[in-house]
Design goal:
The chain is an alpha+beta fold. It contains 3 helices and 17 strands. Among the domains are: about 25-120, Immunoglobulin-like (Sandwich), CATH 2.60.40; about 125-215, Immunoglobulins (Immunoglobulin-like, Sandwich).
Length: about 270
């Protein structure tokens, strides 16, 4: 097998990277929201597009929109571009992505960021049908209920940005409900949960969050009897010992079990012979 000269190998790699860049296949940046992507109505939020140090400019746009929301602000020489939304409204919700410019070319789009506005409807209620302290491996059902006829309910964990489940609702007592299943539950699922209600025709506008539900996942503790229980167990053991002694004495006083001999009975001999 012939060896490829290092110079040709380097040339090949350079041409490959150049071709990759010319096709616009620069690695995608990362888009985040501060303080979070689940934003109360009329609150402030900032979108950040983070790319490599060599980036020459950035732009942020809503998925489905061909142009950036603000060209002058989006295409800049800053390494990390920020889009500031002073007051969150339903018209600014949706999926956002961003890209960066390098060498006159634009990178791939980042993964989409779901920007949600909360507080549009009254809050639902969230409860655990197995209690708030459960054991690992247990089947846990979280029930989200609302008097409003929401099409879907969303379960989030901790800071409200981590969507755990999104499920359709069913009728319940004049309103709607859904059951979120955690099966089997593990220690990593412990934390603070909330649920929201929404409608399919406006999926990024949610209700107020439910009151927080703190779920604890704890292994069963070893059984430690109380002092009173220990005394009772000791008395029971002593009584059992006394009964055994009495039974043994009664058995011995009766001579114990009869012993049967396997030897044949003695034979009588005639002494007159």
């Amino acid at each position: 097998m012939s060896m490829v000269p290092p110079s040709l190998l380097c040339l090949g790699l350079c041409l490959s990277q150049s071709t990759w860049a010319q096709k616009g296949n620069l690695p995608p940046p990362r888009i985040t929201a501060l303080p979070g992507s689940t934003v109360p109505a009329k609150s402030h939020v900032t979108l950040l597009c983070q790319g490599p140090k060599q980036a020459e400019g950035y732009r942020i746009s809503r998925v489905g929109s061909p142009e950036p929301m603000d060209k002058e602000e989006q295409i800049t020489s800053r390494k990390t571009n920020a889009l500031s939304i002073a007051e969150m409204t339903s018209g600014k919700t949706g999926l956002y992505h961003c890209s960066y410019q390098r060498g006159g070319r634009w990178s791939q789009f980042s993964d989409p960021l779901q920007l949600v506005m909360t507080g549009a409807y009254d809050k639902p209620s969230l409860s655990s049908m197995a209690g708030t302290v459960v054991s690992p491996g247990e089947k846990v059902k979280l029930q989200c209920v609302s008097k409003i006829n929401h099409d879907v309910f969303i379960l989030t964990k901790e800071d409200g940005d981590h969507v755990t489940q999104n499920q359709s609702s069913v009728p319940h007592d004049g309103g709607r409900q859904t059951i979120f299943l955690l099966n089997p539950v593990s220690s990593t699922q412990a934390g603070t949960f909330r649920c929201y209600g929404a409608f399919r025709d406006n999926p990024y506008v949610w209700s107020q969050p439910s009151d927080p539900l703190q779920l604890q996942v704890e292994a069963p503790t070893a059984w430690h009897p109380s002092v009173e229980t220990q005394v009772r167990l000791s008395l029971a053991a002593l009584l059992l010992l006394v009964m055994v002694v009495l039974l043994a004495e009664a058995w011995c006083s009766q001579g114990g079990p009869s012993v049967k001999s396997d030897e044949p009975p003695p034979q009588w001999t005639d002494k007159r012979r």
